[in-house]
Structures are given as structure tokens and as C-alpha cells.
Amino acid sequence: MSGRALLMWDEAVTGYDFGPQHPMDPVRLALTMGLVRAFGLDRAVDVVAAKPAGESTLRLVHREDYVAAVKAASADPRHADQAYGLGTVDDPAFAGMHEASALIAGQSVAAAEAVWRGEAEHAVNFAGGLHHAMPGGAAGFCIYNDASLAIARLLELGVERVAYVDVDVHHGDGVQAAFWEDPRVLTVSLHEHPRTLFPQTGWPEETGAPGAGEGGAVNVALPAGTGDAGWLRAFHAVVPELLADFRPQVLVTQHGADTHFDDPLAHLAVSLDAQRAVQEACHELAHACADGRWVALGGGGYAVVDVVPRSWTHLVGIAAHAPVAPETVIPSSWRDQAYARTRQLGPGRMTDGRWPVDFREWSAGYDPADRLDQAVLATRKAAFPLRGLLA
After folding, report:
1. What tens digit of pLDDT does each residue of 82-119 get?
2. Cα–Cα distance for residue pair 370/182, rounded to 1 Å
3. Contacts of 90 (CB under 8 A, 6+ apart)
4. Average pLDDT over the chain, rounded to whole?
5. What are the pLDDT digits (tens) for 353-387?
6. Cα angle vertex 316, ends 355, 107, to 5°?
7. pLDDT of residue 3
8. CA 245 to CA 253: how far, in whole Å?
9. CA 150, CA 57: separation in Å to the nearest integer?
């Protein structure tokens, strides 16, 4: 296997643009790539632009009628069919929507192919991670579900076990739904509790379809306000044990940056430093449990200057085995670029000042009065016995 990492990038992914008032501003992608270049990380990875996902690939997950509806809305946004979730407040139709969405999906699928074939050890597509799209509909800013398509392509290539770990603030509902009945895929999602956040799914009791799929879905519903120590405690109380047991041949992870305390659309209180710590943990788990095969995707994240570029630049650095130290000063050239594009002053360093992040391991004991511990225990009780593990 090549020890190189791939960074999937095509400037045209910034054409995934719902309009000037929409929170999912594609400038977050351009600024991330700008910061990657400012640190020279584009020389530590192989930067690759893949082809858009074609019809046969899209239909690994999405229904034929839905793909046709996306194409029709892409050609004439005025006639988007809201029965498919298109032309809504969350997912406004725009010209070229199919092409931009298929391009992002193509990057994730190509990343998965390269990792499985041994052409690269790790691959990153920070434009991907659009985890809410369903087989027959758009949802939550997502048109095509590139994460599900990457996993489906791995299964088509003969992979027997794929683990998907999603640490976006929102539940990874579309990926869970795509593989609800498939024992070859383990989906694990850590997210804000569905009582307080879209899409109102991801309860601990959601554990997969009865029968072969049972135990294939694991959900950690975190209380609003969860900060660094609780977030890391929950991750380490659930994910490593599951992956060690499942032994995935490929690890696919989704790194939505919207867990951050500055994100305007959610209610967790996680720092950039804790996000970096989880990225490092996923990297280590890929080596420990999946022979190093790691596909890392982006996702949500709506603090488009202060948070998203830094978080995903850390992800690229970690995947490239060239991590950016948290205390590193951000080049003034990038800050100038960010101001020119957004009229916002960019951050000065690659840290929120919380590194290293401390947390209490689950093995240190359970506090029955603590809401975070209650959430973790609910997940372990619901899902772990179904996999033959102790709650």
C-alpha cells in the first residue's frame, strides 16, 4: 500500500451554491483549500480531481426517479419538485445543481476506490460528508449522499466490512438509512440530541433493522451544551471498542465542524482543539483496526472563516502525516484572502487555546447524575449487547 495521502479537490465543487443567504456558503471550501496551500500541505499530499459520479454510481444509493428530478431541477430551478425535497428553504434549487452534487460525490467515490485498491493509504474529501440525502430525496443541505455512495462502491468492489463514524453535530441519518439492513456496514454517529436539533433522529434505540441489520447502527445523542471533555469522553467510550470488535477493512469518517461553540446552527460547545483530537483518534483507529485504510470527509460547519478552514486543514495535515501544530500562526496571506472574500477578520492561530484537551476515560467510572454519562450509557445498553459486547 502506498503511504501517500490523497486530497480530492476540484475548484468546481464551489459551484455547490444554494445562494447568498444560505448558511452553507461554498467560500468555506475555497478558504479551506487556501489554508491548506498556505501551509504547503498540498505538497504533502497528492491533489486529485476525480470525475463526477455517473448515473450507475448514483443509483447505488439513489432512486432513478430522484436522480431524474435533480437533473430536471438543475436544468430549470423554477420547476423543482418539492416532493423530492428540492426547491425548499433547506435545499434551494440552482442551475447546475446535479453537476455540482455529482462532482462532490465523485470525489468521495474515487477516494474510497483509491484507498481500497492500495493507491493511497488515506484520502480526504472535505467537500463531501453530505450525510442527510436519502435514496429518494434531498434533505438538510444535501442533494446526493456522497458518504453512502463511497461505502456502496466499496461494497460493490468486494469489501466485506466498512465502518462509518460520523461526528457532525447532526445525526448521520442518510447513511444510517442507506445501510439499515446491511450487516457489512457499521454506522456510528455522535450528535446533538434529537430533542434539540435537526433531523430529530439518532436516538440510542435506533440500532438497525431486526435480523441481519440489528446492531449495525449505533447512536450517541449528546446533551445540548456538551463541551470538549464530554465530547471526547463519549467518543472514546463508544467508538474504539466497536471498531476493535468489528474490524473494518475500511474506515470512513465524517468530520462536520458544526460541533464548534461558534457554529450558528447548533448547540454543542466543542473547540477546534477537541475536533483535532478526534481527527487524530480516527487516524489512529484506522491504523489500529483497518490496516490504515481511511477515507475522511467534511460535512457541516457554518462558521465559515473562524472554524471550518482551520478544522479541515488540521484533518488534511493529519491524513498527510504532516500535522499542523495547534500553536502555529496562520499566514497573513490567508487572513488577507479571508478578509477579501468575506470582510471578516480571520483567526490568528490554529488553536482555540485548549490544547491539549483533557477528558476522563469511561473506564474511570460512571456518574449516574451526569447527563453526558447517562447518554453514553444509554447507547452502550442499547447497542453493545447486540454486538456481543458488555454495556
Report:
1. 999 999 999 999 999 999 999 999 999 999 999 999 99
2. 34
3. 138, 139, 140, 141
4. 97
5. 999 999 999 999 999 999 999 999 999 999 999 99
6. 145
7. 78
8. 17
9. 9
Q: What percent of the chain has pLDDT over 70?
A: 99
Cβ burial of 340 (10 Å; 0-12, 13-18, 19+) is exposed
**What does DSSP say about strands 46-48 and 5-8: parallel, antiparallel, or unpaired?**
parallel
CA–CA gap between residue 242 and residue 248 (Å, rounded): 10
* Burial class of residue 386 (count of CB atoms within 10 Å of its CB; 0-12, 13-18, 19+): middle
Q: Measured between alpha carbons, how far is 153 from 111 in angstroms, rounded to an integer?
A: 10
Alpha-carbon gap, residue 201 to 170, rounded angstroms:
9
- Residue 114 has φ and ψ, to the nearest 5°, of -65, -40
Task: Say whether 354 sits in a helix, a strand or coil.
Answer: coil
C-alpha cell at 10: 476540484
Cα–Cα nearest to 265, from 307, 313, 296: 307
H or E stretch covering 108: helix 97-116
- The rounded distance, in Å, linking the Cα atoms of 11 and 101 is 13
- Whole-Å CA distances, 205 to 60, 133, 214, 378, 381: 27, 22, 11, 8, 9
Give the C-alpha separation, 287 to 163, whole Å: 13
Strands lying side by side in the sheet with 46-48:
46-48, 5-8, 122-125, 294-297, 250-254, 162-166, 185-192, 217-222
Do residues 185 and 216 lie in contact, with contact meaning Cβ atoms separated by under 8 Å? yes
* C-alpha span between 226 and 254 (Å, rounded): 19
Element (DSSP H or E) covering residue 33: helix 27-38
- Cell numbers linked to 315: 484533518
Instruction: Name residue 227's amino acid.
Output: G
Residue at grid coordinates 461526528: 167
- Give 129-159 as a DSSP string: --TT-BTTB-BTTBSS-HHHHHHHHHHHTT-
Residues labelled catalytic: 132
